[in-house]
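Action item from last meeting closed. Structure (391 res):
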């Protein structure tokens, strides 16, 4: 073989060409299909952003109506799926449940697997955008021992998700516009982030021509880890821990800097952003606004702000260019919206779904080859086999 370049963690290796998301880590710039994240978070709806990421252009009203109409037509989930959900203990982590349910969907939608034409891809994409929120809502309701329900097609995409998640039996559910706007913004901010760990997973699984749902299920598993999407849960647990320990942020700063201590400041640092994470800026501002509008006071918000201030003035963090990332303040908003901590990463998955889909579709349309990295072998040379009695 030829010379192999070794790059653990792919820190300097591009895996593909992509026209979806532009990210400049030095200057803190993030754009979807050329539109700034600041504009999209302020002015667009999540479903518009999903359309933009997947198909490359912002939809006209007519295109959006058709797209959402197609989604609504596919929003039923097979009743048998409820039995699968029933089989899980209530204590099961929602991310494990969600990735399992996403895989299980394949059995009930076999036509979603071999999709070579753009038309068949569209059908599979619409099915997933329709059914995934139902699975998310069911995952939450199972955890909370609430009856499972379907959506309300009179509502928009995000309001319908809120209703599916939170509607109580025998009670009317009224969407709170503050909650709805906050969730729209969070989902948009999470919608794509070029070749991150879960997206690379989706592309590499999809590159073997495994179906879309199987690729997404693998992406959910990748997102689960605390170094990636799982950080949002880990941040709140960390902040709670600091609060219960008396709120001494200095003590935890010291732990984060101590190389003998495995503790890291969760929600800090990023592989690509080395100046600031533009998503974190928007979310921090939004956290203040949403908590104010909802009249929620959360003592961990003060701890978070204290930690951020100390870190930004600390040599260790400055030298390593560690800044708050998207996950540092997002959990504080999710909490104010009434979403349980264990569900935070599920909400990230819901937001990232259009990005995963867009990247999968791009990869398949470009007929990319199967992903198959090489290695540098460091094991034994040829050895003589020894019979078991002689070992
Ligand atoms: N707390 C303390 N030290 C840190 C942290 C942190 N959060 N992050 C990085 N460092 C140090 C690290 O110890 C290393 O120091 P040294 O050069 O002395 O060995 C240096 O900074 C570089 O870190 P790295 O681990 O080599 O960088 P990476 O690009 O491999 O990892 C990261 C990036 C995001 C995994 C890492 O910063 C981290 O673990 N952060 C905490 C978890 C987190 O918030 N993840 C969410 C990321 S953003 C959203 C998402 O992807 O889901």
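Sequence:
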């Amino acid at each position: 073989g030829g010379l192999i370049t070794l790059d653990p963690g792919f820190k300097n290796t591009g895996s593909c060409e992509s026209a979806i998301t532009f990210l400049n880590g030095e200057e803190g710039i993030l754009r979807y299909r050329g539109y700034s994240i600041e504009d999209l978070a302020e002015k667009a709806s999540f479903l518009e952003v999903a359309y933009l990421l997947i198909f490359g252009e912002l939809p006209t009203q007519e295109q959006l109506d058709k797209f959402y109409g197609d989604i609504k037509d596919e929003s039923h989930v097979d009743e048998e799926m409820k039995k699968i959900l029933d089989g899980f203990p209530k204590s099961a982590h929602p991310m494990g449940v969600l990735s399992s349910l996403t895989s299980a969907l394949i059995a009930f939608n076999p036509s979603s697997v071999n999709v070579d034409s753009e038309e068949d891809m569209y059908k599979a994409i619409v099915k997933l955008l329709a059914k995934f929120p139902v699975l998310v809502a069911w995952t939450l309701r199972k955890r909370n021992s609430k009856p499972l329900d379907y959506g309300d097609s009179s509502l928009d995409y995000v309001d319908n998700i809120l209703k599916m998640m939170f509607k109580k039996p025998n009670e009317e559910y009224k969407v709170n516009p503050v909650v709805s706007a906050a969730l729209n913004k969070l989902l948009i901010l999470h919608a794509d982030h070029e070749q991150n760990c879960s997206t690379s997973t989706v592309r590499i699984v999809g590159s073997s021509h495994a179906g879309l749902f199987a690729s997404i299920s693998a992406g959910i598993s990748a997102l689960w880890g605390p170094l990636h999407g799982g950080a949002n849960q880990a941040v709140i647990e960390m902040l709670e821990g600091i609060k219960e320990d008396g709120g001494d942020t200095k003590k935890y700063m010291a732990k984060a800097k101590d190389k003998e201590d495995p503790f890291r400041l969760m929600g800090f640092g990023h592989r690509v952003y080395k100046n600031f994470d533009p998503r974190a800026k928007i979310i921090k501002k939004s956290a203040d606004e949403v908590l104010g509008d909802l009249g929620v006071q959360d003592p961990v918000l003060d701890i978070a702000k204290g930690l951020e201030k100390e870190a930004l003035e600390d040599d260790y963090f400055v030298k390593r260019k560690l800044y708050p990332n998207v996950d540092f303040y997002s959990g504080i908003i999710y909490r104010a919206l009434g979403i349980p901590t264990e569900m935070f990463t599920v909400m990230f998955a819901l937001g990232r779904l259009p990005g995963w889909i867009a990247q999968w579709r791009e990869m398949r349309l470009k007929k990319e080859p199967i992903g198959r990295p090489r290695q540098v072998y460091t094991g034994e040379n040829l050895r003589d086999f020894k019979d078991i009695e002689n070992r």
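Note appended to the action item: The chain has a mean pLDDT of 95.
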